[in-house]
Amino acid sequence: MSYALRNTIILLVTLFLFAGSAFAFIKFVQEKQIEELQTELEVQQQDYNTKAEIRDQYPALQERYIKARDIVQGYDKMLYTSNNPDDVYDYLSELNDSDLELFYDFTFVDSVQNDQYGVVNSIIAGTSLYTDLVTFINRIENSALLNKVGINQITPASGASLEGLENENYVNFSLKLQSFYQRTTFDTNVLEEDLVRFNPDISIFNPFKPLILNDIPENVDNLTDVERSRLLGYTGTRIFLVDQNGERKTLKIGDKVYLGYLKSIDTKNRQVIFSLNKGGIQELFTLEVEQ
């Protein structure tokens, strides 16, 4: 074999090995890398398209968000921040302050979840003055935290008493309370001083109270008992008398007395007139200066 042929064969084998290696590298390495890069490119393209779509929608979504936020912040109501029944009990205690004669037991029933809000269900049952119960319900439904009151039962509390004194204005009651709480956080614009509110136009007339009472209320405030008093004199605007305790009193029109108030001063007929409510029976009582 000549030297030239041997070199040619060596070059051909070397070229064959180089070409085979290049083919194998392209076939088994680069093609796999190309497939992976194509897959990644498709993923990146999809992500880009999604973000581009969000980018295009952003101005409209921002406008909707601002409008929705303004609507929510314009509400005078807000939701509880959790479904903790202690929060409901504490809020009721705040509404039932010291000026109400209302005594109740609070019973937690359950908590129900919805998509964006939930409801804490509870029962409030006890005894109260009817007017104070109406005021309490008024505060619950008109104050800032969102509560809904359902009445299970309200009945006259016969024999109910306060410090041993029977009072026909008392009722027994059972209320179903739904307290709404948020499951998605959002801003509210309710001021702290607006958390407790009530509607002053709600009537507190007690339909359970008899129109005519069996017993006349006692004079617990030691007001002037005009039926046991003596008129000393009067002017166009004031009267002077000695009350049931022998004390001199000065009254003007509209001043309270036991069972009523001073209605008018009749200087022409030389008498003063009181309007008295004797357990539902309205009477006019007159006093004249003793001669």
Let me know the largest β-sheet.
4 strands, antiparallel
Strand proportion, as a percent range, falls in 25-35%
- The dominant shape is rod-shaped
The CATH topology label of the largest domain is Alpha-Beta Plaits
Q: At the first level of CATH, what is the class of the largest domain?
A: Alpha Beta
Count of individual beta strands? 13
Give the mean pLDDT. 82
- Count of structural domains: 3
Order of secondary-structure elements: HHEEHEEEEEEEEEEE
Biggest sheet, spatial arrangement of strands: 1-2-6-3
Which percent bin holds the helix content? 25-40%
Provide the gyration radius in Å.
Answer: 43 Å
SS content category: alpha+beta
Number of helices: 3
Distance between the termini: 171 Å
Outline the low-pLDDT stretches.
Answer: 160-165
CATH architecture of the largest domain: 2-Layer Sandwich
CATH superfamily of the largest domain: Ribosomal protein S6/Translation elongation factor EF1B
Describe this structure in words.
This protein is of the alpha+beta class. It folds into three domains: about 1-75; about 85-195, Alpha-Beta Plaits (2-Layer Sandwich), CATH 3.30.70.60; about 225-290, no CATH class. Helix content is about 35%, strand content about 30%. The protein is built from three helices and 13 strands. The protein has helices at about 5-75, 85-95, 130-140; strands at about 100-115, 115-130, 145-155, 160, 165, 170-180, 230-235, 240, 250, 255, 260-265, 270-280, 280-290. Strands 1-2-6-3 form a four-stranded antiparallel beta sheet. Strand 10 and strand 11 (about 260-265) form a beta hairpin. The longest helix has about 70 residues, at about 5-75. The chain is rod-shaped and about 170 Å long.
